[in-house]
Amino acid sequence: MSHDFPLFGDFSTPDEPSDLSRAAVLAAVEARLLTAFGEAAGRAAVTFLGADRIEVLRFGPDADGLVRYATLGMAAAPMADPSAPVADPLRGPRAELVLSVRGGRDEVLRTLATFAATPQVEGLVVTPGGSLDLGEPIWPGAPFTSVLVAEPGGLVEDLELPEPAEPVRFLPLLPMTPNEAAFKRVQGAAALEERWLRGGTDLRDPQRRAVPLD
User: Fold this and answer.
1) With b meaning 16 or more CB within 10 Å and e meaning fewer, what string describes 148-186?
2) Among candidates 2, 20, 33, which has minimal Cα distance to 98?
3) How many beta carbons lie within 10 A of that of residue 130, not counting itself?
4) Model-level pTM?
5) Model confidence over 51-80: pLDDT tens digits?
6) Dihedrals φ, ψ of 107, to 5°?
7) In terms of Cα–Cα distance, which of 39, 144, 161 is closest to 101?
8) Can you say whether residue 112 is alpha, beta or left, with left for phi > 0 and alpha for psi between -120 and 50 degrees?
9) Whose CA, among 33, 54, 78, 151, lies 20 to 30 Å from 69?
């Protein structure tokens, strides 16, 4: 693994790729993130054996103290259905992951890179309503060991790519406590989100307690 998180400067990249090369797609993804969140305050790079490099960009804190972490690299190739007899190198869903944390937790960068690498490493297709489980705190001392993958569009608009590729979707991640993750596995994502809404849960609070599930 290699990483650093220093201050980075400004970037000038096209917002729409003219081809589907890895470089063109990721340049457009980065430009879309900069448009949504402003100049990146830092970035890290993580490389896993057998997988392409994943970067994590940090934005903020903003006026409300929120820090956004966004992956860069997951969308370079479409996610392939592991049951498909032949993988299409152009077709298939593409995504990047976005986590919002009040006050920031830079230790989460490796976790985000791990989640972003799962399509390459495990053949997993990451979609809204699914979950990603680390099996340990997502950062040291965190009360969360997994995340719920939420619907895209609220933070960052989808990025259109040249046909026949599907758009890049920017999927928010919502941290779950172990009890919430167990509830979600049985009752489903919608039921958990309804409990969060009913309890007025601040899902960006890094030390929040589990929502009542009775």
Assistant:
1) bbbebeebbeebebeeebbebbbbbbbbbbeebbebbee
2) 33
3) 14
4) 0.89
5) 889 999 999 999 999 999 999 999 999 998
6) -65, -10
7) 144
8) alpha
9) 78
In angstroms, rounded to a whole number, what is the distance separating the alpha carbons of residues 94 and 77? 7
At CB < 8 A and 24+ separation, what contacts does 47-53 make?
A: 47/1, 47/2, 48/1, 48/113, 48/114, 48/117, 48/121, 50/120, 50/121, 51/117, 51/120, 51/121, 52/22, 52/76, 52/77, 52/120
Whether the Cβ atoms of residue 72 and residue 117 lie closer than 8 Å to each other: no
100: tokens are 């919002």
Closest C-alpha among 185, 186, 212, 190 to residue 201: 212
Tokens of 3: 């990483």
Strand partners, 66: 102
Query: 């305050």: which residue's tokens?
Result: 41
Query: Sign of the CA dihedral 105, 133, 98, 150?
Result: negative
For 133-159, the pLDDT digits (tens) are 999 999 999 999 999 999 998 899 999
Q: What is the dihedral of CA 140, 143, 145, 150, to 10 degrees?
A: -120
Residues in the chain: 214
